[in-house]
Amino acid sequence: MNQHPTTDHITSLIQEGEFFKLKEVLKRFEPHEVVELLEQEEEREQLIIFRLLPLSLATEVFEYLDLDIQKHFLANLSQDKIADILNEMSPDDRTALLEFLPDELVRELIQTLSEPERRVTLELLGYPEYSVGRLMTPDYIAIRESWTVQQVLDYIRRHGGQSETLSVLYVTDERGVLIDDIRIREFLLSPPERRVTELMDHRFVKLNTMQDQEEAIDVFRKNDRVALPVVNDEGVLFGIVTIDDILDIREEEDTEDIQKLGGSEALDEPYLATSIWSMVKKRAGWLVILLIGEMLTTSAMHHFEDDLQKAAVLGLFIPLIISAGGNAGSQATSLIIRAMSLGEFTLSDWWLVLRREIISGLLLGGILGVVGSLRIVLWATTIDPGYFGPYWQLIAVTVGFSLLGIVLWGALSGAMLPMLLKRLGLDPATASAPFVATLVDVTGLIIYFSVATFVLSGTLL
Q1: 3-class DSSP assignment, residue 88
Q2: Contact of 31 with 61, CB cutoff 8 Å
Q3: What is the secondary structure of 362-420 as a DSSP string?
Q4: pTM value?
Q5: Would you give per-residue pLDDT tens digits along the chain (461 residues)?
Q6: What is the edge-to-edge ordering of all strands in the sheet holding 237-242?
Q7: Quick one: how far is CA 264 from the chain centroid?
Q8: How far is it, in rounded angstroms, from Cα 97 to Cα 91?
Q9: Phi, psi at residue 257, to the nearest 5°?
Q10: DSSP strand E in 105-258: where?
């Protein structure tokens, strides 16, 4: 098997002006190999290589390139070259590119499209930003129920090259209304004279043009499809959405949720492509909110200042107490938000979630309470008997029961807060782990000193 030339060899061909030889070499590359090559070259070399690619290969490569490189090519390639590439691109990939470009440039680029492609692109851009209509491509195979299997296969041979996928064919009536979808294997395994209507079962899954993209992700996951038809409110087939587009959206949604869980607004661009000032703006808001929240912790401590003066030993366990509650809350909110995003339960299952977290919180709190109490017991009986004073047993009980209560509260807060936000129509990921931890810090102090007042009343307090 012939190996492709190295990047150094490609660069040397450019420097020597051997463009005809380079053009012949590039014809043997696969699209992903050209992408890797371009990413290793400087901007000047990138343009030279791209200009030498055959149109079909250039189009495939362009669709896989990072947005920054795409913008660079659009700014430096000839108008004819740009027009050829945009006209060859699949409508959904072209729309995804245009969404990130300035309005003035979008208007100029749309004018370079052929009339049919311009009409399709404008139609796709007319749908709401996060709707299924923005993802769909009109490149599919539609057939009629009166056709025979042989007619269908002949039609595929003539028009299949234009389709995004041939795994599923869509049956429509004379008005374009979708009435069924049939897998290609049914036609390949059926006699040529058999009619489409005999293969139909009228059971199919569809998406709506105005449907939210997140809902489409759930539909794909539940039905294990590589493509799904998209219809309007009247049932007319407008296009299809393929699994590669859904995977891209899934990645974007997961990235956004993870960034929010860290206590930050979601970034609009990759980390290294985001300016420092933009990064600061995305993160500062939450940090200020969390700081204000932690100020409430100071207020809570001030409220129990007299107790701290009477029993200074209680202050030793404040970091332990609030960190245990915050950690329990962070665990719960991360688990619940992920489970909600995967559709593992709905809001109507809130009682089941609450019950599970009550049990989990009691068990986890009991474990941490025993560990915390044992630490005090071992220290007071072996390492430094006089360190906690004569009431070390009561201090151990205070810490143990405080941990039980705080971990239970942290688990319940972390689980219920995302569900409450979802019920209010807000993004559950807003209930980030730092936010829940801050909330539990404040309430944890109240629980701790309330238990201390009850247990130590008449002794240290």
Answers
A1: helix
A2: yes
A3: HHHHHHHHHHHHHHHHHIIIII-TTTT-TTHHHHHHHHHHHHHHHHHHHHHHHHHHHHH
A4: 0.58
A5: 445 666 777 888 888 888 888 888 888 888 888 888 888 888 888 888 888 888 888 888 888 888 788 888 888 888 778 888 888 888 878 877 777 777 667 767 777 777 777 767 767 777 787 888 888 887 889 999 999 999 999 999 988 887 778 889 999 998 889 999 999 999 999 999 999 999 998 889 999 988 988 888 888 888 888 889 999 888 889 889 988 888 888 777 777 767 666 656 666 666 667 778 877 777 777 667 767 766 766 776 667 677 667 677 788 888 888 888 888 888 888 888 888 877 788 888 999 999 999 999 999 999 999 999 998 888 888 887 777 777 888 989 999 999 999 999 999 998 998 888 888 887 776 656 677 777 788 888 889 888 988 888 877 76
A6: 207-208, 227-231, 237-242
A7: 15
A8: 10
A9: -65, -40
A10: 142-143, 168-172, 178-183, 207-208, 227-231, 237-242
User: What are the strands of the beta sheet with 142-143, ordered from one edge?
Assistant: 142-143, 168-172, 178-183
CA dist 160 and 292 (Å) reads: 61
Q: Give me 151's structure tokens.
A: 């007619």
